[in-house]
Records
---
Amino acid sequence: MQLRSLGRRDLQVSRLGLGLSALGRPGYFTLGHREDLRGEYDVDVMRRRAFDVMDAAYEAGVRYFDAARSYGRAEDFLGDWLRTRTPEDVTTGSKWGYVYVADWRTDVWPQEVKDHSADNFERQWTQTRERLGDRLGVYMIHSVTPDSNVLNDATLLARLENLAARGVLVGLSVSGPKQGDLIRRALELDVFRVVQATWNLLEPSADEALREAHAAGLGVIVKEGVANGRLTERGEEAKHPAMRAACQAYGVTPDVIALAAVLAQPFTDVVLSGAATVPHLRSNLRAADLTLDEATLDALKALTIEPTAFWKARSAMPWT
């Protein structure tokens, strides 16, 4: 699989990465998550499943793995996998800013709680280091939104600058209909070298800001490329005539078209697969070998919906 640098020349990542949000905890809001896990939530079972998916990803050329403190045991699973498999060419990223509070249950709400305070950064940074050690390459603020005020916290920004001075690539992930505004605010600060944002065929509104970030030298990681399952065979949106025409023309499933569309964007360094099973991962990975023509990409723009409507629907998706 093709590699490229992320935020600096000596950090090489694969064009497709593996996100562990659906592998590290029983509850998540991807369509069909319960069915993917078959209701088997025992920690050892989930660890073996995560190892199977990570093994398959690495074998296929994936060299970027993405976790977060709020992804249940994702950092534990990833750290264990790194120690037992000892791959030397893998880059790992993780995120701080949300606290997992579901206690390994799917019937608890909320599943995670936002805390973007400087104190929580120090606490979660220590926890991440305990699990990933010096294998951690990228550390991001998790899901910055306009209400968090985290980009105006001078104390926190100073601590992030100190972290960057230690050799960790500091970044932020953004969420919500104002992603573009947040990315541009981050560009004003000489702290961040990586941005992770949602971009997909339904919600491409961060496009221009991501182009600006990429032009400024930031690494760009795209999340939710299949819109939490809405752009897979499970989603109603995947039945759109433009999507069906593309699938027929290229002989692939909607997830492959959706991820190939992300890879076609000039700002994309890495797009994450959020697969919870090996078959779904292998399907996603077909996007790395697919180049969509301009006519298809233009036709797929018909799937775009208003950003506020996208994020409202996303927030209403059930955690299963």
---
Amino acid sequence: MTRDLFPGFDSHWIDTEAGRIFARAGGEGPPLLLLHGFPQTHAAWHRIAPALARTHRVVCPDLRGYGWSSVPRDGEGHETYSKRAMGRDAVAVMEALGHVHFGIVGHDRGGRVAYRLALDEPGRIERLALLDIVPTLVAWERIEAGLQPAAHWDFLSRPAPLPEEEIGRDPLPYFEGLMRKWSGKGELDIFDPAALESYRQSCNEPNRIHAFCEDYRAGRTLDREQDARDLAAGRTIACPSFLVWSRGYLEKAGAEAPLESWRRTFAPRIDGASVDGGHFLAEERPDETLAALQRFFG
């Protein structure tokens, strides 16, 4: 039996438009929502959530299509896996747990959900922390300009069923290869075995593989279009915002400094801090990541 990575945290199954969203919640204090990235689950937070729970009510859900959450059928135009739709799940989860206003931390795809929600519903989000991302629109502009490798962004967002079929022939080597590549050491031993097992279970299932691809298809289309409309309208994130980025991953991904990507687009007053290591900050560099978040959230 896999050990519990969140001892003392409650487990919740919360009904949303996507079906049921699974979440762990623990601690007392101001509510703080943690949203994981690809190809992970809520287990990504296990090294920092207990410390954050000493001062906050911490909620760690699985995004729709990931982990133990439902896998809704994709609708027209990839809307089902848009970050706006995933943001509605986040609101439903927090409201079901009694929180109308809350802080939010998002890593990778979860970060894209987080900043989209902060733009869409500015009255809800009190403070926003993003881990190791630039805006979706900026990332696609870099890819198309040849300043950033297309890599998995292009592959996963290709029309169905091409990527699903290719990955489905042997899913674990594909996903584990990505995690090795994005880690600072190039190895899987940065992950706790129980967390790695959670990721393997989520990745090794055809419906979830399709959901992952739809997540990236939405990023290439709807998410990017929504970013472009907001940028043209001059909309920015209203709440205090903070970026934690990796010197070994995001800083190498483009010529522009990560903070500058946000300051010229959606977060003109964003502050931030860099951390050594690869992409998986909360697992590779939990002490430094936690310290940065604690400074921001108090």
